[in-house]
Amino acid sequence: MGGLSARADRRGVGASTREVIAERVDRIADGVVSLVLVTPDGSPFQPWEPGAHIDVHLGDQYVRQYSLCSSPDDLSHLRVAVLDVPGSRGGSRWIHGNVRPGDTLEISEPRNNFPVRDSRKYLFLAGGIGITPIIPMIERAAEAGKDWRLVYGGRSRGSMAFAEQLVGTYGDRVDVVAEDERGRMDLAGVLALPRAHMLVYACGPGGMLRAVEDLCMGWPPGSLHTERFAATALGPGSVAEPFEVELARSGKTVSVPTDRTILEAVEDVGVRVLSSCRQGLCGTCETTVVSGEPEHRDAVLTQDDQDGGATMMICVSRAAAGCGRLVLDL
Ligand code: FES
C-alpha cells in the first residue's frame, strides 16, 4: 500500500488550482453532502493516493481542505463529503448553502498529509466525518488482501456517511458503533493489546484522537497515524511571546509580536510565502528552519517531524519559549 512521502507531497503545490464542475451534490447522511467533481472537458484527474485531500476555494472568502473519499483507481471524478458543522467558521455552511449540481468550483490538485505505509495489518478508526480519508485506505487494503478492520463511531446510523455501504461491501470487517444504539466506541478495548505488524490509522474529532494517542502509548513507535480537523491546542503553560525571525535568503529580520503569526509578519515585509488554510491544517506554508527551536502548533507534521524541528508551519507555529530568534529559509 504505497503512499507519497508526506514531506515531498506537501511542498510547493499549494498554488496549483483548477476549475471543476460539481456533477452531483447529494445528501448522504444527516448534515452531510457529497460532492462529485469532474473536469470541464471530461479529462481524468492526476493520480492520488489514499489519505489525500484537496483545497476547495469557496467563493472569495474561504479555502477549506476536504479528504478525498472516491476511489484512487477511478480518476474520472473526485468525491468529497462535507459535514455541516453547527457554528463552523463558514466553509461547510457555504458548501451546504451554495453549491448546486452544475456549479463551477476551484480546487487544488490532490495533496497528501496522511499517507498510508505498507504493513501486514491495519486497524482503521473513524469518528463521524473522519470516515472520509479512511474509505480509499480500506479499498487499497482490501485489494491488496491485507488483514484489516474498521471501527467507525458516530452519533446515530443516520448521521454516519457511508456506514451502510461499508457494511454491505466488507461485512464483518466493519464495526459500526452508533452511540444511540451501543454507546461510544470502546477504544480502550480495541487498543488494549499492542499488536506487532499492525498500523493504526485514525481520523475524527480531537477528543477521540487524544484518547487514541493515549491508548497507543504502549504500541511500537510509529504504529499510530492520525489526521485532525483542527490544529493542536496549546499545552499547559504555553504563552505567546514576541520573538524575531531572520529570513536567511532575503536578508531581512522581522519582529513577530504576540498577536501576529510568522506568516503575517513575513508578508508584512513583502516576502511571499505560499499559504492556504492559515490554520496549521494543510501543510502549504511548510518552511525550513535553519536554526532556532520552533514550538509546533500545526496538525500536519508527525511527532517525529516536530521533534526533528527541520521544518515548521509558519501560519500557526512560533518560536519555543526562551528562543528569541528563529532563522528560516525564506
Ligand atoms: S497555510 Fe495551511 S498549514 Fe499553514
Describe the structure.
It is built from nine helices and 19 strands. The chain has helices spanning 6-10, 91-98, 131-143, 163-170, 179-182, 187-190, 206-215, 262-268, 303-308, and strands spanning 17-29, 32-38, 52-58, 62-67, 78-83, 104-108, 111-112, 121-127, 147-154, 174-178, 198-203, 224-227, 243-247, 252-256, 286-291, 294-295, 311-313, 318-319, 325-328. Strands 1, 2, 3, 4, 5, 6 and 7 form a seven-stranded antiparallel beta sheet that branches. A hairpin with a 2-residue loop joins β1 and β2 (32-38). The longest helix has 13 residues, at 131-143. It is globular and about 60 Å long. The protein binds FE2/S2 (inorganic) cluster. The site of FE2/S2 (inorganic) cluster has 14 residues, from loops. FE2/S2 (inorganic) cluster (FES) binds at residues 275-278, 280-285, 298, 300, 313, 315.
